[in-house]
Specification:
Elements (H helix, E strand, L loop, with lengths): L8 E4 L4 H13 L3 E5 L7 H6 L7 E3 L5 E2 L2 H11 L11 H30 L5 H19 L12 H16 L1 H6 L3 H11 L2 H6 L6 H4 L3 E3 L2
Parallel strand pairs: 1-2
Antiparallel strand pairs: 1-3, 2-5, 3-4
Helix pairs in contact: 1-3, 1-6, 4-5, 4-6, 5-8, 6-8
């Protein structure tokens, strides 16, 4: 087992969906890391030195490699260990399909979601239009989940954990509308995650790293 000072370090923000999915993948991989919780208003100099762009997640491996994109952190974690076979090892076609779905949500749905959140926050008159733009993508997930238990098949995949934090955000914008919306399969899928031990562990609130500079072992 790695010694503490040989473990990868991840800078993370508890409620950031990108950081969240990176932590989920690390948890699923059972790869231990040293977790450093931060807030964007007070970024550690150590993080900015290795990643000047100043966003999370940032993962630093023991050999000094820096991984700055959440999707790449997920792939790194699952390359270290994938006991649930979230990558569907050996099935290149399935991996391609997962990556296509993740890219669709990262490149298109995320922007629609940000508009929807802003419309709600500032009580804008176009909130229904913004919600309907999101629904184009939510309806695709509903269709998938009407065919099998998870997004890609009857077992969990990389796509499920990659999209989970963003669907959670969508569900929270207009909570009462969402609970009555015509997406029962999406609700069940999301609830199963939100009520899981995994999600509880991933979302545990920790003391900010800059308060005591004490690294927290996470993931295994």
């Amino acid at each position: 087992m790695n010694k503490k000072n040989e473990l990868p370090i991840i800078y993370s923000l508890r409620n950031c969906p990108f950081a969240m999915r990176a932590r989920i993948a690390i948890y699923k991989s059972q790869q231990p890391v040293l977790l450093r919780d931060i807030v964007l208003s007070d970024k550690p100099a150590e993080m900015l030195t290795v990643s000047p762009k100043g966003t999370v997640p940032v993962l630093v491996t023991p050999n000094g490699t820096v991984i700055e994109e959440s999707y790449e952190v997920m792939l790194w974690a699952l390359s270290m260990g994938d006991p649930d076979d979230l990558l569907f090892m050996g099935d290149e076609e399935m991996l391609d399909k997962m990556q296509t779905l993740i890219y669709l949500f990262d490149s298109e749905f995320k922007g629609c979601l940000e508009n929807y959140k802003c419309a709600k926050r500032y009580s804008e008159t176009n909130i229904i239009e913004c919600r309907e733009a999101c629904e184009v993508y939510i309806a695709q997930l509903e269709q998938r989940l009407s065919q099998h238990q998870y997004l890609m098949a009857d077992r969990e995949s990389l796509a499920d954990i990659a999209l989970l934090p963003f669907i959670r955000q969508f569900a929270r914008v207009e909570r009462q509308w969402y609970l009555q919306a015509p997406y029962p399969h999406v609700r069940q899928w999301l609830n199963n995650y939100l009520q899981s031990k995994m999600f509880s562990k991933v979302m545990t609130k920790h003391e900010l790293w800059l308060q005591n500079r004490a690294d927290l072992r996470f993931g295994a």
